[in-house]
Each structure stands twice: as C-alpha cells, then as structure tokens.
Amino acid sequence: MVGYSFMGAVHSHAWRTAPRFFDLPFAPELTALAGRNAAGVQVAADKFGWDSVETDWRRLIERDDIDLIDICSPGDTHAEIAIAALEAGKHVLCEKPLANSVAEAEKMTAVASSAAERGVYSMCGFTYRRTPALALAKRMVDDGRLGELRHVRAQYLQDWLSDADAPLTWRLDKSKSGSGSLGDIGAHSIDAAQWITGSSITGVSALMETFVKERPIGGDFIGLGGHGGTDGPRGPVTVDDAAIFTARFGGKTSGAGRTSDGGPIGVFEATRFALGRKNAMRLELNGTLGSLAFDFEDMNSLSFYDAAHEDAGFRRIIVTEPSHPYVGNWWPTGHGLGYEHGFTHQVVDLVNAISAGEQPAPSFSDALQVQKVLAAVEASAEAESRWQKV
Amino acid sequence: MVGYSFMGAVHSHAWRTAPRFFDLPFAPELTALAGRNAAGVQVAADKFGWDSVETDWRRLIERDDIDLIDICSPGDTHAEIAIAALEAGKHVLCEKPLANSVAEAEKMTAVASSAAERGVYSMCGFTYRRTPALALAKRMVDDGRLGELRHVRAQYLQDWLSDADAPLTWRLDKSKSGSGSLGDIGAHSIDAAQWITGSSITGVSALMETFVKERPIGGDFIGLGGHGGTDGPRGPVTVDDAAIFTARFGGKTSGAGRTSDGGPIGVFEATRFALGRKNAMRLELNGTLGSLAFDFEDMNSLSFYDAAHEDAGFRRIIVTEPSHPYVGNWWPTGHGLGYEHGFTHQVVDLVNAISAGEQPAPSFSDALQVQKVLAAVEASAEAESRWQKV
Amino acid sequence: MVGYSFMGAVHSHAWRTAPRFFDLPFAPELTALAGRNAAGVQVAADKFGWDSVETDWRRLIERDDIDLIDICSPGDTHAEIAIAALEAGKHVLCEKPLANSVAEAEKMTAVASSAAERGVYSMCGFTYRRTPALALAKRMVDDGRLGELRHVRAQYLQDWLSDADAPLTWRLDKSKSGSGSLGDIGAHSIDAAQWITGSSITGVSALMETFVKERPIGGDFIGLGGHGGTDGPRGPVTVDDAAIFTARFGGKTSGAGRTSDGGPIGVFEATRFALGRKNAMRLELNGTLGSLAFDFEDMNSLSFYDAAHEDAGFRRIIVTEPSHPYVGNWWPTGHGLGYEHGFTHQVVDLVNAISAGEQPAPSFSDALQVQKVLAAVEASAEAESRWQKV
Amino acid sequence: MVGYSFMGAVHSHAWRTAPRFFDLPFAPELTALAGRNAAGVQVAADKFGWDSVETDWRRLIERDDIDLIDICSPGDTHAEIAIAALEAGKHVLCEKPLANSVAEAEKMTAVASSAAERGVYSMCGFTYRRTPALALAKRMVDDGRLGELRHVRAQYLQDWLSDADAPLTWRLDKSKSGSGSLGDIGAHSIDAAQWITGSSITGVSALMETFVKERPIGGDFIGLGGHGGTDGPRGPVTVDDAAIFTARFGGKTSGAGRTSDGGPIGVFEATRFALGRKNAMRLELNGTLGSLAFDFEDMNSLSFYDAAHEDAGFRRIIVTEPSHPYVGNWWPTGHGLGYEHGFTHQVVDLVNAISAGEQPAPSFSDALQVQKVLAAVEASAEAESRWQKV
C-alpha cells in the first residue's frame, strides 16, 4: 500500500478485517507499506499491521512477494504508480478520483485494459457502491422497481471548511488534489448516480465557487478541518469550495428523444460549506413506478416509495437484514454497520473478482467516465455555465 | 372575488376566518363572487359564503359596495382585472404568479405604484411567506443568526403529473398558465428564497423538461391530478414538467465581499414528477453561523443549526409557541396549523396594511422580480443553459 | 354552546366551517352562547359568531330555537348540563372526559341510552378519532392489515407544566378537572387505543406522580401554561402531573387465543412534564402482520410497516390523499390539515348521524368505558400498583 | 475466550481492532479460544484469529500464557467460569446478563470484590455504555444540562420472534438464558438508564407475556430468528416474549420525598415482537432544563432539547465529532460508526483500567444491581403487578 493517512488507515482495516467475516479465495497479507517519511511510515505500519515498510513506492513494484498495490496517496501520484504497477503485473486498487486530469485517466485506462487481458486487474475506490443501502438501491433499480427514471437529485454536503480559518491543506491545492469539493466528494455522487441508474451523464451546466479565497498556512489540523492561526500568513485556495450543476443522463438504449426513451435529468451539489451537514451524501431517484432516497448521515437505511401500494409512502428500510447485499456476514438484524464496512466489502469484491479472473467494478474505465464529467463541469463553469457535452 | 376553484375555496375560508381569530381594523364582508358560469358561481357562492354573484368580473369593479378585488382566476386574466380594479380605486389581492409575462407584470407594477400613491394598495399571493415556520425563518435570518449566507437549496417537489394518463388541464396549457412547474410552484420557491435571504437573484442557468408530451383530453379530475381515459384523444402539453436551475444572489451590501459577488449561490428544482413527494416545498440555507431547513410536508416545524453550540445539531423547532409569528392567535403549543392558515394570515396582513396606509408585502414590484427570474430561467433553458442575467 | 375558552373557540370554528367544506343534511346555526360572565360571553359571542348569549346554561335548554347543546365547560359541570339537555330533548355534544367520576358517567350514559330511544342523541368529544391519520389507522386495523395485535404503545407527552412557576389553574384543581394529565390527555390515548384496536382495556397497573406540589396563585397565563409570580402565594396542586400504566386488552373474539386473554398488552404514559414534547400524542401498534405508528407532532402522516413486503420498512404515509378519510373535502394532496380540522369532522359526523337517526360515536357509553379505565388507573396507583380490573 | 457464536465473533473483532485505532498500554494477544466442540472451535479460532483452542474452559484458567478470560458463553455458565478465573488471578470480561439469578450474581460480585483487592479485575459487558451517542448522553447528564430528571422512557424493541414459526433456540429456554426479552435486551435498558441517570431503580411494577407458547424444534436459524419447520415437533417456550414495567429511581442524595429530592419515574418495555422495529434500543430522559432521546436504529446521533434556548427544539447531534467520546480515534466528522465499535471501546476501557490498577466499569457490582431489578420485575409480574422493591 502507498500512503498512510486517513485512507491508509481505513484500507488497512479493510484488508485485515475482510477474511475474518467473509470466506475469501485468498488470505490477504499486509506485506509492505510505502511512504516517503521513514519514521512516519514505520509508525503507521506498526499501528496498521503491515509487515514491512518502504520509503519509495517503486520498491513495492520490484518486490516479488507483492501481488497487489493499493494506492492511497494524493491524486497527482495515481497515474505514475498505477501504470508502473500494472505494467509490472501487479493488480491495482486505486483511490478516487482516478487521476487529476482526463488525459492521465485515459492513459491509465488504456494500460488497465491491456493488463486485464493478461489477467492483471485494476479497480477504482468508489466505495459508496459498497454501502449496503446503496447496493440495495442498485438492485432495486436493476429489478425495475422504479420504472423509467425521471429525476436524479444528488447532494454531497459537508461543512468542515465553513470556518474561514481552517488551515490550507493539500486538499485545497489544485496541483495536488485536482479540484476541491467537485473531485473530492462530487466524484462520489457522480459515480454513484451513474452506477445506480445504469446510464451515463451526457452533458452538464455548472457553477463553481470558492467562498474563502485565502487560508492560514499551517495550524492545527483536526479531522478533515481544524483551525489554523488567524494572525499568521495565508495562502491561496486554488480549488472550488462548492460545485453545483444540472445534468442529463443518456437512456439505457439508443434513441432520439430526450425523454420517453431518454434518461433522467439531474441536479448535483457538492460543497464543504453546508454548515451542519457533516457527511450528507444524499441521492434521490424518482421513476415512473417508484422513488428511492438515501442519506449517508443515516447510512443503514434506504427510503423507498412504491407507487403501486394503496396508502403509499416512503418507507425506511433498515438495511441490516441477512438478505440484503453484504449484510449477512456481519451482525443480526438492526445492528448497524459503519463507514469503514464499505472498504471491507471493496476488498471482498476485489479479491473475489481477481480469483475468478473477472474484471472488478468500478474499473478504470468507469472511473474515466467520472473524470470526463468532472472535466465537463469545470469547462461549463468557466464558460458562463454553457451546456457542455461529456 | 374572481374565480371559485381551489384558490377560490381557500381564499373564501381565509376571509371568513381571519376576523374570528385576529383583531382586525375592518370586518371583511364577502360581498360578491364572480365567475362566467352562472350556475356554477351561484353554487360556489352559497358554499363559500358570498352574498351575491356576478358573471362578469367587470361588474365587481363597477359596484360601490366593493372595496377590494381578490383575483383567483388563471394567470392570463390577472393583468386586465388587476389594472382595471386598481384604476377604479379598488384594492387588489392577486394570486401568483402575478402575470404570464414580464411585460404584463411591468404594466401591472406601474399601475400598482401609482395607485399606491393614491392609497389604493395591491399585494401578490405568495402565501408561503405566511407559513409560521417560514416567517420564523425570515426573522432568524434578519436577526443575523445565520451570518453571511453561502448556500440556498430550494426544491418544490410534487408528483401529481407523474401518471402519464393524468388529464390535460388548463395548468398544462401555456396560453392559460404561462408555464408549468416553473411558474406554478417554482415561483413560490423563488419568492420565498429572495424574501428570506433579503437579496435578489442576479442570474441563472437552467434546464427544463417536459417528460410527458401528450395527455388525455377530459377524464376524471381528482385533486390536482386524477386519471384521464387512456383510449381517447390526446392533446399536447405546452408547459414544462420540471425546471431546474443554478443561481447567484446579490449581496446585501456593496463592498469587497468574501464571495465573488457577495451573495449566496443557489440550486432550484421544481417538478410535478417527483414520485412520492406530495407537496415538498423545501428550503435550506447555509450561512457562516447557522443553517435553516424547512419542508412543507412537515409544515409546523423548522430545523435550525447553530454552529455556536457545543454539541451542535439541527434542531426541530415546533413552530407553535405563542411567541412565534402568527401562532399566538390560534391554539396552544404543539397543536399544529394547516395549509390554509397561511391564507388567513395573508388576509390579516393585507387588511392591517390597508388600514395603516402602508404598502402590503409582497407588492406587485416584488412579484415582478419573481417574474423576471422566471423569464431568465426560460431564456437560459432555451439557450443551452447559458448564464442569463436577471 | 356552554363555555367559551380554548374549547369554545375551536368548537365554534368547527360549527362555522363544517358546512363550507362538507355537504351536510342540516345547516348548523350558532344560535346562543352561554357563560356566567355577561361581558365575557358577549365578547366571545361576537368574536366566535354566535347570534345571542345567555348567562345561565339552563336558558339554552328552555329555548325552542335550540336543538343541540355543545358542552365545553369544565368536567364538573358536564353531568348536570348533559342530563338536563337530553331530558329536554336536545341533542348533546359533550367535551371529554365525560365526567369527573364513574358514577356521574354511568348516570349520564343511562340517560343518554333512553334519550337515544326517543331519537335524541349524544356524543363525547374524543376528537382525535377524527384526525385523518388516526381514522386511516382505524380502517387499516379493521381491514386486518396488522393481523392479530400484540403491543399497544401509547404516549401523550406535553411539557407546559414543566416550569415549576407555571400558575395554578383550574386544570390543576381536582374538584374542577377530576384529574390531571390522566384525564386531560391520557383519556385521549385510552379512547384512541380502545377505538382503533376494537377492544377494551380489561385491567391496569399504574403509577402516578405530582412533581410540583405547589404553584403560584394567579400569574400570567399564556397558552396552556405561562408563568406565575415566584414571590406570591402558592396553592396546592391536587391532581397528577404524570400517570403511567401497563394494561391488558380483551380479545375481540372468545376462544383459545395465543395470548393469555387474547388481546394485546399495552404501555401508557401521560405527562405534562416531558420537556420538549409539545403535543406528542403518540400511538404505536404491533401486530402479527404489520405495525402502525402515529405522532400528533407530525399529524398529517401515519407510519405503517407491512411485514409481507420484501425490503419492508415503516413507510410514512402522508395522509392527504382524496381517498383517505375526511381529506377529500379539503385541499389537494400534500397540503396538510391542522389541529382544528378534527373538530370540524366531529361536527360533520355528528350532524350526519343525527340526520340519519343513528347513534353517533363515541357514545356516552364509549366514554363511560374510558372513565372506568381512568378510575382503575387511580385505584391501582393508590394500591401499590396492584393489578386493577376494569 | 469462552464461546464463539455471535458474541464470540464481535468480541474477537474488538480484541483484534482496539490496538489498531487506540494507543493501549498492552498489546492484546488472542491466545486461546475455548469451546466444547473440537471441530467447531478450531474453525472459529481460524476465522476469528485465535492462536490456539481448548475444548474445556478450565484449561484456559490453568494456562500461564493467559491473563484475561472473556466469557461469551450462555448465562448459565457465567458464574462457574468467572469465579474460577478470578480466583486463579485472571482478569475477567463477562457478557451480560451477569448470571441467571441474583444468588449467582451475588456470589460472583463477592469474589470479584476480593479479587479486585488483589489487583485482579472484572467487568460486565453492557456495551451500550460505549456507544458514542450514549456516552455523550451520560456526559451531558453529569454536566447538569438536563437539570433534575423527571422521566425515563426506555424501550428495547426487536421483532425477530414475531414469526410464530421461528425456531426454539437456547435463548427461549429459561434454564440456559435465565429469561427472555427481559434479560436479553431489557437488561441493557436497565443498565443504561441507571448508568446515565446516575441513580438506581428502587422499585418496579411489571407485566410479562409469552405470546407464542410453543415453537418448532430445529429449523433454519438465520441471524437471531429464522424460520423453523411448521409440521415438525414443537417444544415449550419457557421465557417471556415481552416485559413491560413502571419504575421509580432513587434520588442521587438521601432524603424523604419521592419527587423534588427524589428521582425520576420510568417506563420500560422490552420485546422481541414489535414488528418492524429491528434493534430499537431507545432511551429518552426529561429533566427540568433539558431532554435527551436516543434510538439505536439511528445510532450515530443523539437528540437534545435545551429549554434555555429561544426557539428551542430537539436537535439531532451527529455524534461523530472528534470532541465526542470515543470518536476521535476513528474517522472524520460525519463518517458513522457501527454496532461493533462499542465492543472495541469496551476493550480499550478495560485494558486501560487494568493497566492503571483501577476498577473498570460496569463492575460485577453494577451488574448485580441490574440483576436485582430483573428479579424484582419477575417477582412483580408473578404477584399481579404489585409494587416490588429492589
């Protein structure tokens, strides 16, 4: 694994935990953790349970005792590491967003495709797909229980940058992170929406905003946010604080019309300034037969409206039944799961796919499509919100 | 009063009820009801408690025993009636949207302004302003409890057209209604957002859609929707089924604001196809100090987030305390009000303003600003979502 | 009508409003309002729309132009007025609780029964039966959608006495009110539970408590509560502040039921000290096939769990569809009703029953059964919670 | 560790995970797992990560490489194992309920007390104390933010026995489990209520019920419930399906009165027949200054009402801030935890207490107090609900 901050911690937990609750074809071994700071990486490896450390990720690729590279470092490093790993015959799990540009993502996808032909697989870490409630949502849409979709309503609301004195971290530096709320959290909404609806976004019209244009350099960093010094020097925020856009989705089948055989229309909002909303990754779908609504702040439930019922209403399905996706291997009914379980499920799906010789999802190609939407959003925002095809 | 369908019923109730719960300077008398169908208007007058009927609204204007005209007929009739009434010295309460075009609305506003100088007042029926929870929201924003606003999130979600066989009514005929979900319900969101934030929308980028392009002529009409025959003739739907747009609001004060032009950014969605959402008129505001959220489907409460609190969280204020706006004249704490109470409060505010010789709000000028936003939304939607200044 | 405080206001509104929204066989006339204070009753009559006043309720009974007496005065006056009215051939609507003792209630019920044989009808004002959501609940239970009932969970939580300095009103004087939270609000829970389940409470075990034993005499009275002087004289609270009890319900049919006596078991709680709960009249029923939950603080919805559904969950039915009980005569879908609508529905049901020559429900006999439960609760609380048969 | 079913799995996860997220004074080692079935225990040990197995728990006590015994076997085995372990100088973590009788619990408590004097500690597994939201609740009560408590409202609602054909497991056999819903889930409510309020239950009046008196022997067992054969033989259910009771709590200080210087009154309900409620462990407290409400079905939040606020309302605190108890070592704000995290926190607290030479909580003495309440509930239910002192 490369990287050992927030994502490194949760990925390590997933690798350790997956075989304890799921029957896996392979027993994952936490062989080596890579990071540039020798002292830091050693502390992390001890804490997270890795057997050895490297200070250069290239060493991971050279080692014979490593079959898979898990990339948890910032977005500007993804392309180089992933391409090198795949070309060296290592499977790859890469955190999202796949890259910081469409060009990089296209290169990665091309390499991933040819690697897959050699049985070397790659996957991008859009873990919300593995939240049980969203996995159930996907199944319900696939089963036709919503009918033809008309509306997609996707919000990803956080508030950890609402304080104008929160410090300037790498997430606010465009050269490191690619974009701000758009790529960090909006990318999750885009992937989830495209995956669950089974159709791609074909065009967008966008507005982006940076509310706080300078922030303290340094400062106490707590969680994602924290508080910087108010008197010290400040540096520029080079990414968006919020991104909002309208979208059209393609129909599942080809055809001319936008509606009866076209796809739904969508509204997206990603922000880290929605004071009071902590991790409100919300998705609502309205179809001709039913509707679904999800909010990660109540992550163990899914609301479903079935128009066929007399006395219809949104029902809050507590997604903890053994029959629901992913859930049967954990606790009894009603005993909820947490944020990290999605990562454990990701490991399970990845290991099973590799073992079966099948392409795991989301592939780099799926992630490239997300990257194209991100690029279209930025292009529209720069062009007076004009419609931008994806 | 002109018109006696849904709006006529609720306005009549408000005129009858206001003096029973509020101390008014005048006792309203329900003098005459106008409608083209002689039999229908007589039945309605008996039912709603009007003393006499007219089959031509012009007669109301001629009568000396009438001081105020309440216009509840479709939007294409508003301008002619309102102008005639104001010029004849009658006060006017006009349902929203004010008119079917900006040009009409401008003419009405000009007439209203000069009438106001003569002590003849007019008001437009954006009644959501009188919902106690939204009146409280306004007061909290005015009191600075949210700080500087960053996000406006406005949805008006209904589902009564979701059935593709619901009949083709006047609300789906652009020549009668002006627009579809945009003017019918989106207008409420626009007015509420501008009023509560105290700032105007300065530009929009929009997408509009008509999902069902033809509908049965005739059919059983129940509530707003109902079900038409599936075999009979169909006619074209000439209005939007859904309208979604991004927006910028002007700042309240000039100067070097933190955001690019000082005000919040907004996302709006109006649709009658959000299956399962019955009358979800929702508004959320995020500021630097606090946030507010409202949903008309739980209309007696307002959610407020105060960032200053240790252990902060959105709190559900049940807006039924005697100290809250409008509420003290009704029932004890916790005994909720319904949809029609906003109309009763509207009567109270209107009668009090007339008595005091003050311009009631929302004025025709306020309603004209809404009309301009509606026009900008339509223009943007027709121009590939390009940014359209208001 | 006798009495013109809170209940007088809402009853008057109901009498005025019912014919405006419902087709009634008779047009109700608000003939005379009775109250001991001549000035007060005249002001109330003008405000509420009554044609004349009386300072002695006995005059109402003597007048030939009065067909029905609506009793809204405190509980200690009910028996005398109701009996006199019924014997004089006037129909009676009597506020709850029916009386301040079982003995009084039995006498009233006997008189009511013989009056009914002469076509003179009486009804007790348990208006929660007319809340659309609870009326729907009743229909769903009757239709067997919950199966055999196992649990009843009834709470009536208010907080207007939580302030130890709220003034000592007649509601805290046992000689006037009969009991405290038990009779005032617990009675509603008992009636609703017995009515919806279709079975009677057969025994109880209870605990009652008076948290604040003395309160200020006088003081500002606002809503139900308010604030008294803290320095002035205090008087004793002679009623319960809270009453909690367990209960058994009789089965609907005789036979070898699955439970020990065939019906569900219940938990009841009535209090005016549940800080933050304003009018939380809650009822939850669990059966073998489904469950229902209601909270008056969200009065336009009903939660229903149908175990037969794959992916089951409690669904929030917004009870504003034209097909739902009482609702079709009001507003379109999603436009909620308020507290007072139950009283309007009560008038509709009462007038229709009288016109049809049928006994309206709840009858005095139904109310007597509630009174017996109240008495059993008090008896058990006084006997170390020992089980008390009803 | 002794036992390896549901509780064994979650305890193993906690032992493995605690050192990965918390700085512990000792690194826990999963030395040996004991179970009677040699094959079964080996499979479990491999799955859960234990180094060795034993088929007799006595061997664990004899081994020198074991310092602590974690007892996850059924309640009828607790006393013997715990006493032997403590006398042998092993620390003990014992699942709840502590024992199947007060006599056993008293014996265990006596042994635990004398062991503690020798630095050998014991703890009972009431893990809900470690749910972050309830830990926050405890802190808020301790900080006086609720004022003097008046009401406790505790429900523990499940539905996995609602199906009359769910199989007859050891949990329905009184000789194994001690009691049914009362000891299994009601015990959690009792411990949580006593712990958070800081006062003990002094008396109860109870009603218990067994709705389904015979169940299939064998059958498919899924989660906690499942479905047995409908045609095969049935055996008697010897425990309660539901237990409901009223209670009084002692004041925190001595004194004569029940109220102003006494403790709150409480209503408790434990059932496995509340159809639709999956794991609704709910607790609500009403005080003179504030109220708190919790529901495990939305486990990452706590509702708090602060009467001091203008525009007060219950606020939903999302308990994922780094400042909240237990949370800082996990994920960023808004990224919720699951059921098992309470067990990890339990390990952390236990290891820290042992290291510090302090008695961990809840002690066996705390658990004995719970046991006494359970016994009083059973005694009252058998004596016509008569008040039973604890």
Automatic annotation (TrEMBL), chains A, B, C, D:
Gfo/Idh/MocA-like oxidoreductase N-terminal domain ranges (all copies): 1-115
Coiled-coil ranges per UniProt: none
InterPro entries registered for this protein in UniProt: Gfo/Idh/MocA-like_OxRdtase_N, Gfo/Idh/MocA_oxidrdct_glycsds, GFO_IDH_MocA-like_dom
Stored PANTHER family: BCDNA.GH03377
Annotated ranges, domain GFO/IDH/MocA-like oxidoreductase: 136-292
Top-level division of the source organism's lineage: Bacteria
UniProt xrefs under Pfam families: GFO_IDH_MocA (PF01408), GFO_IDH_MocA_C3 (PF22725)
Name listed for the protein in its UniProt record: Gfo/Idh/MocA family oxidoreductase
Keyword vocabulary terms for this entry: NAD, Oxidoreductase
